[in-house]
Amino acid sequence: MSAPEVSSHRLGPVHAIPVGEGRAFAVDGRQIAVFRLRAGGDLRALDAVCPHAGGPLADAQIDHLKIVCPLHGFAFSLSDGACPGGGLAVRTYPVREEDGEIVVEV
Fold this sequence. Notes:
By secondary structure, this protein is an all-beta fold. The chain is built from no helices and 10 strands. The strands form 3 sheets. A 4-stranded antiparallel sheet has the order 2-3-4-8, with no helix packed on it. A hairpin with a 2-residue loop joins strand 2 and strand 3.
């Protein structure tokens, strides 16, 4: 079985996401939330829709380890997408800054 094909997508300038916030992007038919962390401005990317009740994760509260869904308070790890309470998870995506732009791999 071959590995799934991975493609890189440029989403726009990094400065379009204020430090400490997230934004949602449509990428290859899916919604991806990209966050710019307060600590160093690092980027993280994960599914933009909460699997619990469809909440907009790009609007989540954010710290350096997790985000918290604005609808019902479900938390998800920024490193692996897991919910600390177990059961639910969101997919994470490799993301980086390249020449001042956000590049995510799907």
